[in-house]
Amino acid sequence: MKKKNIINLIRYHSEGNEAGFRSEAYEIAKEFDQVGDYQLAEYIMALLSNANTFVPQVSDLSSGFFEKVTVGNSPLPLPELIEQDVMGMVNAISRNLGINKFLFQGAPGTGKTETAKQVARILNRELYAVDFSAVIDSKLGQTQKNIVSLFREITEFAHPEKVIVLFDEIDSIALDRTNSNDLREMGRATSTLLKEFDRLDDRVVLLATTNLFDHFDKALVRRFDSIIDFNRYSQEDLAEIAEVLLNDFLNKFKCTGKNIRLFRKIVSLMSPIPYPGELKNIIRASVAFSNPSDEFDYLRRFYKAVYTEPMDIHVMQSQGFTVREIEILTGISKSQVSRELKED
């Protein structure tokens, strides 16, 4: 059993995701069965069966090369240009014309992996991510063999029209074979990957992501039916996305108050506004760690995360905050704020 199995079990339990918890337990049971610990595997399966809620997955991707990705329903705001490309991709897949290989390229935090989850949700397909730590092997020639085995399992999938395979950060194995600094072993792995791409069943949707598109193997680039650039965010796009993310988190924490005007002023202090991945983490932490008895404590925490200097009411006034907004952010009463500002 791998560390990720334990982490997934704890995460699914804390999220109340019963289906995900049982699916992970099922994978653990199969792993014990494969290594010869049949009694423990049977015991786990018995516990699951007695609960009368265990349902086998439609997938037969049972090796250690894959892990099932939970597809949630959180909002994924995208700029219009990227959204149009993604919906075009969804339409192409739905038409079953053999267009099935797509590459998402862009900086970290631009929403590539989250978009893959949303595509799976829209198409009602199961999403499986390739575990590159299981594919890449230090033994000479073993990585190529693992790639062949990986694609063989995909080809033998019982319901290829119901699955999406995600090669997240595919640059782990898709190196530029013309690069003199490249290891020959990984260059051969890339060549093997090219061959397997050409043999892939058209009914299987393959999504890949990369942060290193400029160093990507050009021959592999040509294997993709479409490449979507996730770097096309304007600062206006990111400001709007920040509000969508905030509203989603506030809906989950009913004790918090909403002050969009103040939130926008704080966002305007970010120069530049970070990509959605980082932005989501900052907003989520501000809301999650806020004091439940203080409805605007999350705004105070958000301000401190954005502006890391010590709070100064004079600086805050120069940043465009009103006396009331300074009161919210500092906890100092309006009368005292006004008095101190007037005195100075």
TrEMBL record:
Q: Which family does it belong to?
A: Belongs to the AAA ATPase family.
**Which domain of life does the UniProt lineage start with?**
Bacteria
Question: What name appears for this protein in its UniProt entry?
Answer: AAA family ATPase
The Gene Ontology terms for molecular function here are:
ATP binding; ATP hydrolysis activity
**What keywords appear on the UniProt entry?**
ATP-binding, Nucleotide-binding
What the entry lists under SMART domains is as follows: AAA
Enumerate the spans annotated as AAA+ ATPase domain.
98-234
**Keyword Transmembrane (UniProt):** no
The organism named in the record is Faecalibacterium langellae
CDD domains on file: RecA-like_protease
